[in-house]
Amino acid sequence: MPERPDLEYAVKVLRKEVVGLGIAGVRVKKPVVLRVAVPGKIDELLVGRTIGSVKRMSHFVLFALGDLEIAVSPMLAGRFALAQPSGKQPADLALALDLSDGSSLQYRDDVQMGKVYVIRAGTRAEVPGLGKIGLDALDPRRFTREAFRALAARRRDQVKVFLMDKAAIDSMGNAYADEVLWEARIHPKAMVRSLGPEQIDSLHDAIVKVLGEARDEIARRAPPIEEKVRDFLAVRGRHGEPCRRCGTKIRSAGVHGHDADMCPTCQPDHRGKGIVDWRKLKPS
Ligand SMILES: [Zn+2]
Fold first, then answer.
1. Which residues surround ligand 1, an ion (CB under 5 A)?
2. 138 CA to middle of ligand 1, Å?
3. Per residue in 148-172, pLDDT tens?
């Protein structure tokens, strides 16, 4: 799924290409993704409006259209593309905005799990997932070690679940959470409260490093926005390949319904260690 580094890059490109353009037409190909929270037909609502800004918030991309706003959550497989309306229409096209310069802004989604909300400006908090945005992991003034320690101190869950909580940290999904845990050498199922202060600090530093480097790497590659560049990742999607650090085979483990790719040597499982299991002790 597209994550923060992918969305930041897409937003940067979209800002350059579509801000200031008018909407000349709307084509809805997969209505299941659309959530229109204002009365009226979609084309009557949108045609004639100008795209005022594009920005990312959490795992959403927001397009400002005067007193309306479009909020797109690409979820599992959604992606944006810029195309000519006359070009071949991709099979996964969900929604297209035909723009005043003759180009077309496409939202594509081959599993149709993403959502495109059309809302009144200022009502963003009513969209599920936009009500509470976590601490911006790439804002060095706010995302300090101290702030992260305070966040972690309140958690009673597994570390990977914590990292993926977008209301706590802005933001990571499955792939970058795996990368961060490998970087910090922490097992994905470790309980947050079992981590020592040094591990919490290295987790913080790993988040900043992994997300920052991914953002820079994608910007450097400058792919078409519909492509997701992941080949530079260390563990995600590398099940069975040798760990870059130690050579052990990368393994997959289930964490709360998500799969986690990890190195069993670099990320040892300390759960239950040092605790006496009285049930296994025989009376002497
Ligand atoms: Zn390793």
1. 243, 245-246, 248, 263, 265-266
2. 26
3. 999 999 999 999 999 999 999 999 9
Distance 140 CA to ligand 1 centre (A): 29
Residue 277: the pLDDT is 45
Kindly state whether residues 97 and 161 are assigned to the same domain.
no
Residue 267 Cα to ligand 1 midpoint, Å, equals 7
- CATH number of the CATH domain containing 190: 1.10.8.50
Residues 152 and 108 in one domain: no
Question: What value, to the nearest 5°, has the Cα angle with vertex 57 and ends 30 and 237?
Answer: 70
Find the domain containing 156 and state its range: 135-262
CA of 262 to the centre of ligand 1 (A): 8
Assess whether pLDDT exceeds 70 at residue 283: no
Domain termination site, one of 94, 126, 158: 126
Asked whether the beta carbons of 180 and 261 are under 8 A apart, the reply is no
Q: What's the 146 CA to ligand 1 centre distance in angstroms?
A: 28
Q: Is residue 68 part of a domain?
A: yes
SS (H, E, C) 132-152: CCCEECCCCCCCCHHHHHHHH
**Under 8 Å CB-to-CB from 126, ≥6 apart: which residues?**
37, 119
Report CA(251)–ligand 1 centroid distance (Å).
Answer: 10
pLDDT cut 70: percent of the chain above it: 95
Q: How far is the CA of 244 from the centre of ligand 1 (A)?
A: 7
Indicate the residue among 81, 108, 126 that finishes a domain. Answer: 126
Average pLDDT score over the chain: 93
Q: What is the pLDDT of residues 13-70, one digit of tens each?
A: 999 999 999 999 999 999 999 999 999 999 999 999 999 999 999 999 999 999 999 9
- Which helix (H) or strand (E) covers residue 200, if one does? helix 197-221
* Residue 180 within a domain: yes
* Domain presence at residue 281: no
How many angstroms separate the alpha carbon of residue 250 from the centre of ligand 1? 8
